[in-house]
Structures are given as structure tokens and as C-alpha cells.
Amino acid sequence: MKINRSGSAVWTGGLKDGKGAISTQSGALDAYPYGFATRFEGQPGSNPEELIAAAHASCFTMALSLILGEAGLTAEKMETTAVVTLEKLDDGFAVTASKLTLKATIPGTDDATFQELAGKAKANCPISKLLKADISLEAELLN
User: Fewer beta carbons within 10 Å, N or C terminal of the chain?
Assistant: First the structure.
């Protein structure tokens, strides 16, 4: 099975004074604004790093749901946040880390099993495999 999904970006102008718009195939984002100020200066709008963070959090959470099901468990609720770090290095900017933070309520499991399954999801979700940054996970079982 092979699935293709797409996103697109349009950019006009120079780096600092230019403007961009991000769109996704699904239409969830449709010409959503991004630019230098939204990426580096905290202005409203999107940026590539927050999109990667959302993709990583959602992919990891879905992967964990699959792994839990294989173990005969079902989450009552899982909330995952990903923080993607963009750093200026000697040779330019690079995404250097993605920190996943998970809070989950999963009846019928203990913390050791939970940590093992969450670690497996972190290592095996497709977005984790895509990223070459240091990926860390902080998982808290709320039962």
C-alpha cells in the first residue's frame, strides 16, 4: 500500500519582507499565512516547525493507539504535545529536536507497560522515522 498526501506553499517577496501561504490537500489549511515574522518573531500565522510538531504529535498518538490495541488495551484519552526545536547552527538553521509529551488515561495497564508501549510508538511512528532530530518522550499515565 502506498498513500500520497500533499501540502503546498506559495511565497512572494524577499525573506524578511515576503509573505507566504500554506495549503493542505484536505483543505484544513487553505492559503494560511506564514512568513519570517511568524517563524522567527512570534507573530500570528503558521510556520513549518509547528506543522511538523502537529504532524509528529498526531502520528505518534495514532501509532500508540495501534500498539495499545495489539496489547488488548484501549485508551480512554491521550493528549500529546510535540515541541519542535529550530536552532541556528554553524552551517545554518536545523530542526534539532522534537519533544513529545503525552498524558494518557488507559484502563487496565501499569506504568511499566505503558512506558514500553509509548516508547515503541515513538520509535515506530512514520513521522519519527522521517525526522533525524533527537526525539524525546515524556509519558504520564493518568489512571
Answer: N
